[in-house]
Design goal:
The complex is a heterodimer of chains A (147) and B (378).
Chain A lengths: L8 E4 L3 H13 L6 E4 L2 H8 L16 E4 L8 H9 L9 E5 L4 H9 L4 E4 L4 H18 L5
Parallel strand pairs in A: 1-2, 1-3, 3-4, 4-5
Helix pairs in contact in A: 1-5, 2-3
Chain B lengths: L4 E7 L3 H10 L7 E7 L5 H7 L4 E5 L8 H10 L5 E5 L4 H9 L4 E4 L5 H56 L1 H17 L6 H32 L4 E5 H15 L6 E4 L4 E5 H18 L7 E9 L2 E8 L31 H11 L4 E6 L3 E9 L2
Parallel strand pairs in B: 1-2, 1-3, 3-4, 4-5, 7-9
Antiparallel strand pairs in B: 6-8, 9-10, 10-12, 11-12
Helix pairs in contact in B: 5-7, 6-7, 7-10, 8-9, 9-10
Chain lengths: 147, 378
């Protein structure tokens, strides 16, 4: 279990296959060392806001990026996004929506709520691999967050 | 209301007129009248509580209110009653105006006899009954329309939720199938022979195809439910840009494209564009095996509509299948001959139907095909 104050990627994904594939793609580029995987929206909020079983975490040490599925048990992805982006303490955390849906309404709503990037998971594995490693490289290595 | 007894309430301040009406109603006519009268409207409400009138006779020359004002007051108090207006000798115009404002009839004083009065009363009651019936039917109809609209809206919502889950939930397992077969090929290849690898590749090809089917089906569903914003469309510009895109997608091919004069049409720009993209990419696709592919786009005006066509010298089709062309998932070629999901022309048809137009096709196997669409003129 990684130190929860040094997490680089928070992966919010309920589908075990998608989670495994995402982690596999990130591992290929050694980007998955400090990754926490949560399986529903409620746990994602607990992690981000240092509550419940993550209460020992310091809320200031947010992850470098949140990879967020939209269709999630308990609290859905759009709600998670809204809560992260409407709180002064967490709104600088980059959130990337990574979802199967390419419904226009989801894209529009996500951007209205302040998403940093919206990526539709391709069905094709090679494309999926590229998409995930591109976004991992970008948000973890290229992007310069505010201090 | 009993047919044998009609309760008549008269609002009249002139005792002479009261007496006259009362006398006229006494004449035998097969109908029995029960009669009551009031000198002014202020007492109408209390009077109606004890006297359940079937019809109201109203003088428009009362001391406390004049003309149509009296009618409005009476209507407010006795909204359920048929009203017959009594006007002065030169009161025809006022009478007609009163009828336009909700009275059932009018009578001119000094021109009233018993048969006329009786007929007016019976007619006013009947007319009011029919009016009420029509009003009731209209209200019921309105209610039914609202119910149906609500049902349709609910069905639409359900359909949207359905295609949303199709979009989201059907893709995830496909991705797992495709990805884990790929991982198997990459990481467990030494345990597989040629035949095993070949089969795994079929698995991957099929998932790719199913992904395409899901996308196309969703696009088709979206055309049916998305709102339309209509504006004049410059078809020449639109078709030119689509052809450029199609040609740059296959830079090694030389396709001879002829464009005849294309008019402006009136429609939803994104839908019409989608329609021409589908028609033109079909023309490009089905001329692939031609040494000299020719595509012609043109338009003719007929009455209120423009008929545009896209003609090619490609694979063509047998006219006996012309009705099958536009069905969802209907294909006249195998995937080996020409790739596709069989949704493109179904989308064309749906776009055209949403524009109240028609679509049809002519063709001959091995000679080519022509697709016609009719669109409203800009």
């Amino acid at each position: 279990m990684p130190n929860h104050n040094e997490v680089e990627i928070l992966l919010v994904e309920d589908n075990p296959s998608d989670a495994e594939l995402t982690i596999r793609a990130l591992k290929k580029h050694h980007l998955a060392n400090n990754l926490v995987h949560v399986k529903d929206g409620a746990e994602a909020l607990d992690f981000v806001f240092a509550k419940g079983k993550y209460s020992e975490r310091n809320i200031q040490n947010g992850p470098k990026v949140v990879l967020l599925d939209l269709k999630l048990p308990k609290v859905d992805g759009l709600e998670v996004l809204k809560r992260i982006k409407s709180d002064e303490r967490t709104k600088v955390i980059p959130v990337v929506v990574l979802t199967s849906s390419k419904e226009e309404q989801d894209v529009v709503r996500s951007y209205q709520l302040g998403v940093n990037s919206y990526i539709m998971k391709p069905v094709d594995f090679d494309k999926f691999l590229n998409a995930v490693s591109d976004l991992g490289l970008y948000w973890l290595l290229l992007n310069q967050p505010p201090r | 209301m009993g047919q044998s007894e009609i309760k008549v309430l008269l609002v009249e301040d002139n005792p002479g007129d009261v007496r006259l009406i009362q006398e006229l109603l006494k004449e035998p006519d097969g109908v029995k009248f029960e009669f009551a009268h009031l000198p002014r409207l202020t007492e109408l409400e209390s009077q109606l509580r004890s006297f359940h009138a079937d019809v109201l006779l109203l003088d428009l020359g009362l001391p406390e209110s004049q003309g149509l004002e009296s009618l409005m007051k009476a209507k407010a108090i006795a909204s359920h009653l048929p009203i017959i207006i009594l006007t002065g000798l030169f009161g025809h115009e006022l009478g007609v105006e009163a009828v336009a404002n909700g009275a059932q009839d009018y009578l001119v004083k000094g021109r009233i006899d018993a048969p006329l009065l009786v007929r007016a009363i019976r007619y006013a009651i009947e007319r009011r009954r029919v009016e009420d019936e029509i009003r009731k039917l209209n209200e019921e109809l309105e209610e039914r329309v609202q119910q149906r609209t609500a049902q349709l809206e609910a069905a639409n919502k359900e359909l949207e939720a359905f295609s949303y889950s199709v979009s989201h939930d059907l893709r995830a397992p496909l991705r797992a199938i495709d990805s884990f077969s790929k991982i198997l090929i990459e990481e467990q290849a030494q345990q597989l022979d040629q035949e095993g690898l070949r089969m795994l590749n079929i698995v991957r090809d099929s998932t790719g195809r199913m992904g395409q089917l899901i996308d196309d089906l969703l696009a088709f569903a979206r055309i049916g439910r998305q709102g339309m914003i209509k504006s004049p469309i410059d078809v020449t510009r639109m078709v030119n840009s689509i052809i450029k895109e199609l040609q740059s997608a296959e830079p090694t091919r030389t396709v001879n494209v002829t464009m005849r004069s294309l008019p402006k049409v009136h429609g939803d720009i994104s839908m019409i564009r989608q329609m021409f993209v589908n028609l033109l990419s079909n023309a490009f696709k089905f001329t692939r095996h031609r040494a000299h592919p020719i595509i012609e786009i043109g338009c003719t005006s007929e009455g209120e509509e423009n008929i545009c066509y896209v003609r090619d010298n490609g694979a063509g089709f047998d006219m006996q299948y012309k009705d099958k062309l536009f069905g969802v998932f209907q294909r006249l070629h195998t995937t080996d001959e020409f790739e596709g999901t069989g949704v493109g022309l179904a989308i064309v048809q749906r776009v055209i139907h949403r524009h109240s137009g028609r679509v049809w096709a002519e063709g001959e196997v091995g000679k080519g095909a022509t697709f016609f669409v009719s669109l409203p003129r800009a």
